[in-house]
Prior knowledge:
The chain is α+β, with helices and mostly antiparallel strands and 201 residues long. Helix content is 24%, strand content 31%.
Amino acid sequence: MNYERLIDQILTDGYGVADNFLTLAETTALANQLHHRQADGQFRQAGTGNENAAATIDTQTRGDDIAWLYTPTATTEETAFLARISDFMDYLNQTCYLGLRDCEFHYASYAIGTFYKRHLDRFKTDSRRKLSVICYLNPDWHSDDGGQLALYLSDNQSNERTQLIEPLGGRLVCFESDRLEHAVLPATRERLSLTGWLRTG
């Protein structure tokens, strides 16, 4: 993968998009793993607020169900995904000197009609999240399915525009966690992703 192009996009536009970060086979395999974990009862309703504090369940703000990935219990497919993310982190540290130390990822499943209102990813009490990373697990996604990621971008004159990104299978989106407000729009079918953060020490 051309990491330089992704980094240049982030520096120029505030976000980067890399299609085919995962192959169709990898996307399908991870989507299957997500559904296996759902069937095993490993998902829970996502809350708002720091995971280390008491998370608040507010379906008027956020409607996804999530399951965290942990290295000791990761499957072969999940281990391969995390290894690719680790390779990306190493490259970022070598070229951008970001001081990334680790990452955290969870599966996210948005049922039909659910959403996540405009928000920032970094907690007020925890500044370790440096970059937000989303990798979509939706083969055969179409524009009229909805579910776009809305990025709220501002220029030097504080003019704001909204950039919509479709959650196409295998696509990776990356942006700075403390700078870019974003939202997830409702979809007409289940919307799947692996979502996480690259963190400093």
